[in-house]
Design brief:
The chain contains 16 helices and 18 strands. The protein has helices at residues 19-25, 33-46, 76-82, 105-111, 134-140, 181-198, 264-270, 276-279, 320-323, 336-366, 391-398, 402-417, 421-430, 442-458, 463-470, 480-492, and strands at residues 2-6, 11-15, 51-57, 64-69, 114-123, 126-133, 146-148, 164-172, 213-216, 219-220, 235-236, 240-243, 247-254, 281-286, 289-295, 309-315, 373-378, 381-386. The strands form 4 sheets. Strands 7-6-5-8-4-3-9-10 form an 8-stranded mixed sheet. Strands 11, 12, 13, 14, 15 and 16 form a 6-stranded mixed sheet that branches.
């Protein structure tokens, strides 16, 4: 249907969208179950909810999802306006704590997962109900919303005891119900992990604000802090404030090296679901809600040397246009005025992250008086070679002819040249606790230890110094009893 009107020089035609076609198209903006639930929860937090519960009925023949909050609720007029697609302009000035933007979220997020959206809201004991049923819209080819006087018969409505809102999704046709309830529950489990990351700052008290309680089917959600702020070894850089389309607060973090973490479970917790390598980068928050994470915004590649670096960026909703926040609130891009600063920040973080590894690497030689491997630094190049001055190496070389000694040297250089640096670097970062050196058995330790003691004695060392050195030198470290016995046997020998 069109309406025509004009001003004398031109005619204008109101071309109304085809309701059935457009509402079906709105379903394919790109939401996942995880991002759709997050968009609904944005409205709950904007309504000052302190308790948010997701309820799931997984029977494939009668599946449903309900999101219940104890926020401010809505009047009947506010509910009808909230059901309108595009209820608010993205250019409209919003309350500083408002997590919305386009006035589309509740509708498009819901339509992406279901064909029937029911909203029950309660304020001051007055209950209002409105329902979008896409099948009804298509059949009538009209933007029609059903309203009801009571919530009787609406699933999960009995959980709405006081002021608050229930969002109910039924006719779930985008969650692969044909694969069974277990697959549906797997999708919901992935969604719960997504919520634990996206809303982690709301799940704990921060700057005088009380924590918001989240649960899914009664299981309390636990915040996932990507910056490991709970760990004493996490390096926290100072905050920096910039102005780029609004105030931007930037704070870098360097996570602890694996050897500073006491358990494999804690290390994996720091690595999030993708591991440390893929979890490095910027974490962009809009009003403390995570928008994008683990990205360098195409300004740098993910690299081993920066895998422990993560940067928290905080912006307000006044910065939406400058950062190009999209409808899904899952995509953003830094303003041009900020990009050079962020590039320099990344370069600096690479240096700080390197130092975490240098401190670990220094122990290979600085604390070992008899290193088998020699670490050499020349300008910006570091190399590892077998130490031919090691007493055992030197003693063995002394037994060789000149030709044999030359051949032995070639073999040592071949071994050093073949040291798998990249694999060692990767394993030290990702699987530190799994790395186990091959050990000598007791007989081998006694045999080689006896020879080493003799060699050190010939070099002029006394028993006290020999014992101190061997207690920190692999493979004798940790075998104090054997070392003591070998020295006692030497002392008692005729």
């Amino acid at each position: 249907m069109t309406n025509q009107f004009g001003d004398g020089n031109a005619s204008y035609h109101e071309v109304r969208p085809n309701a059935g076609a457009l509402i079906e198209s709105l379903r394919d903006i790109g939401y996942t179950m995880s991002s759709a639930l997050a968009d609904i929860i944005d409205n709950s937090l904007t309504a000052e909810a302190t308790e948010i519960s997701v309820r799931v009925h997984s029977d494939p023949d009668d599946a449903a999802i309900g999101i219940i909050d104890n926020g401010n609720g809505m009047s009947r007029a506010e509910l009808l306006e909230a059901m309108r697609p595009g209820s608010r302009s993205p250019t409209e000035t919003r309350n500083a704590a408002d997590l919305g933007r386009f006035g589309l979220g509740m509708k498009t997020a819901s339509f992406s997962q279901c064909r029937r959206l029911s909203v029950v809201t309660r304020r001051d004991s007055a209950v209002s109900v409105a329902i979008w049923d896409l099948d009804n819209v298509v059949a009538r080819n009209a933007w029609v919303v059903e309203t009801r006087e009571t919530a009787q018969g609406v699933r999960f409505a009995d959980l709405l005891k006081n002021d608050g809102t229930l969002i109910l999704w039924e006719k779930l046709d985008r969650v692969a119900l044909e694969l069974g309830s277990q697959n549906f529950l797997r999708i919901m489990d992935e969604a719960s992990k997504h919520l634990e990351l996206v809303f982690h700052r709301f799940m704990k008290s921060e700057q005088g604000r009380k924590a918001v309680s989240f649960d899914m089917n009664g299981r309390k959600l636990v915040p996932v802090d990507p910056f490991a702020e709970w760990h004493d070894a996490t390096i926290r850089q100072p905050e920096d404030r910039r102005n780029a389309g609004g105030t931007v607060t930037i704070q870098p973090f360097i996570l602890p090296h694996r050897n500073k973490v006491t358990s494999e479970a804690e290390w994996k917790r720091m690595g999030l679901s993708e591991g440390h390598m893929k979890s490095q980068g910027f974490y962009l928050y809009r009003n403390k809600r995570l928008i994008r994470h683990a990205t360098w915004f195409r300004m740098a590649p993910q690299h081993r040397l920066t895998q422990l670096a993560r940067v928290r960026i905080d912006i307000g909703n006044e910065s939406d246009a400058a950062w190009k926040i999209d409808v899904l609130k899952a995509s953003a891009s830094p303003p041009p005025a900020l990009r050079d600063y962020l590039r320099r920040l990344i370069e600096g973080l690479g240096g700080k992250s390197k130092r975490v590894y240098r401190k670990r690497g220094a122990k290979l030689t600085d604390e070992n008086p008899l290193p088998l491997w020699q670490r050499t630094k020349t300008d910006d190049r570091i190399s590892y070679t077998l130490n031919d001055d090691h007493p055992s190496m030197a003693a063995f070389a002394d037994m060789l002819t000149e030709a044999q000694e030359n051949a032995f040297g070639e073999v040592l250089r071949l071994i050093a040249a073949g040291l798998p640096i990249e694999a060692l670097y990767h394993d030290m970062a990702e699987h530190f606790s799994d790395i186990k050196q091959d050990n000598l058995d007791e007989a081998e330790i006694r045999s080689s230890g006896r020879q080493l003691i003799d060699q050190l004695r010939e070099m002029g060392h006394v028993s006290k110094d020999i014992a101190a050195m061997m207690k920190v030198v692999p493979p004798y470290a940790g075998n104090d009893k054997i070392i003591t016995e070998l020295l006692e046997q030497e002392a008692s020998a005729p």
